[in-house]
Amino acid sequence: METFKIFTVNPGSTSTKIALFEGGKELFSGNVSHDARKLAEYATISDQFAYRKETIDTLLIENKISLDQVDAFVGRGGGLLAMDGGTYEIDDLVLDHATRGANGVQHPAMLGPQIAYEYAKSYHAKAFVVNPPDVDELQDLARMTGIKGVYRVIHLHALNLKETAIRHAASLGRKYEDCNFIVCHIGGGISVSAHRNGKMIDGFDIVGGEGPMAPTRCGSISVADLLKYAQDKDLKDLRSLCTKNGGFVNHTGISDALELTNRAKEGDKYAEMLWNTMVYQITKCIGSMAAALHGKLDGILLGGGMVYNEDLVAQIKEACEWIAPVTAYPGEFEMEAMASGAVRVLSGEEEVKKYSGVCNFTGFDF
Q1: Rounded Cα distance, 216 and 302, in Å
Q2: What is the largest CA-CA distance in the chain?
Q3: pTM for this entry
Q4: Fewest Cβ atoms closer than 10 Å to its Cβ: which of 23, 271, 283, 293?
Q5: Options 3.30.420.40, 3.40.50.150, 3.40.50.10490, 3.90.550.10; which CATH number does 5-135+335-346 get?
Q6: Do the two domains 5-135+335-346 and 158-331 of this chain adopt the same fold?
Q7: Per residue in 115-152, pLDDT tens?
């Protein structure tokens, strides 16, 4: 069986994670920190490209890591329009959309395709993105809202959600495409999603404020209550409640779940209520996804950094294990997920997809 060497790039707000894999084994990984003051010098995310790549090159040289025999470079696929899940080859259209942020979201993940493509060009290798952030496989019934012309979209941790499901299916001796799961990513942001036969058919728009409260996100609230709250607020500040200044931060100024739980253990009733409320909302969202799957489930899967917390896992099991077995996968598989997607394509297990540059849903014909 042929062994492939894969290099993965995952840019974040103030750092860029990189990893080199061969035959499924991690040969090297690094987290390149970037000076926030230096990043502030650039007008746009894409303007950071040369600086970020230079810092990666420096780290590789310092650690004597050669990319000469790499078969494929994979970048986190920010900036792209909504599409089905899968592995996409980075072509001129992907590069253009990532560079300008065609989806309207300015996020460092836009640099993933750009950096991967540049390395692939230099080393005459393939370049891919795997399950980009804007994966949208919603079933039709999940799209309609009570406002004409306004349709639901989802923004979730698609890369880690799908990799967790793929791995769990394999542990059952089955394929992801033959299973039904509820998959959660529970970290700084919280994604709860329903997966049916290899498609993520429902979930929440966690960038738009849907879903459970999270350390930095407000989660779903009444529209009427929000309008009342918004009367003397700036629109920009309101939007930040969805991704930066909601949740634990809004209540206590704390974004670290560990610090909050430590306060709760020390007798802080406010912190305890916030923690338990978040877990309660996660379990309610799991229940809604169970209904979307008509109760036909092969498992409830929990991934993300907060899953290291035993109390969180215990509460979810107590509330939800009557629906299906609950399995915890603490941490995340983002780097491994990108490498695995490339290997599936290179080995012929999965067909590479071509990015259309058109949203896979533009409205109904009525």
Answers
A1: 19
A2: 64
A3: 0.92
A4: 23
A5: 3.30.420.40
A6: yes
A7: 999 999 999 999 999 999 889 999 999 999 999 999 99
